[in-house]
């Protein structure tokens, strides 16, 4: 009984906070693309990993506090968790592109299917992430980090190492394409 009450409470909070823009149009867009009932984090991870959304005409952009999905004039806005920041990182060796808000359907990095050792340490020296990740079909690795921190991101692969200061505040990019491996 308690889990049912929690589920209903969570659903009410999502609707009240503007999930899917609170519109029938947004709900229909999510349903059409098989995203109905998915959390914002699940939507971001699903769309960032493949090119399926591109072929289906779905576009998505990640900002500090929401993911905005569009398709043929329809729009759905999903709030991101208050405490988590999505940073899409595309390490590169020869070619990159400029980016600020990560496009789940438009950004394409150079190194697809590559393994990277990824380490994020905050300014206090705490390790926030230390894992081996494989880049998606779009050449990016997706990192869920705490909001409003500053720290150091280090990425290492067979192609080399890149280190860069990162921040996760409202004024910071959700797309990082400046880490050249050398």
TrEMBL record:
PROSITE patterns: PROKAR_LIPOPROTEIN (PS51257)
InterPro entries linked to this entry: CueP-like
Record Pfam families: CueP
Keywords, in A-Z order: Signal
Signal peptide start and end residues: 1-24
Coiled coil: none
Record's protein name: CueP family metal-binding protein
Source organism: Kocuria sediminis
